[in-house]
Design goal:
Order of helices and strands: HHHHH
Largest sheet: none
Radius of gyration: 18 Å
Number of domains: 1
Number of strands: 0
Helix content: 55-70%
Distance between the termini: 53 Å
Length: 79
């Protein structure tokens, strides 16, 4: 198996890797982020995480950043 992976250029760990789907909680957070982004597109990651905290979701800034990046959301700001 090692030789086959070497020949094809695939790592052995990558051969068995299966991507996991997003959790239900993350999907709910993504829906909330999308709705809030349509209302306030100038909210960045920190303000979005603050807003989620006000709504009762204790969410880390890094998690909000990852979800917003995955959704392709970026704050609108003057240049």
């Amino acid at each position: 198996m090692v030789r086959q992976c070497e020949l094809t250029g695939v790592s052995r760990s990558g051969l068995y890797y299966q991507a996991r789907d997003e959790s239900e909680e993350n999907l709910a957070l993504m829906r909330l982020l999308d709705e809030q982004y349509t209302r306030t597109p100038f909210y960045g990651v920190r303000r979005m995480s603050w807003w989620l905290g006000q709504q009762g979701y204790g969410v880390n800034v890094k998690r909000v950043r990852r979800l917003m990046r995955r959704m392709g959301l970026e704050a609108i700001y003057p240049k």
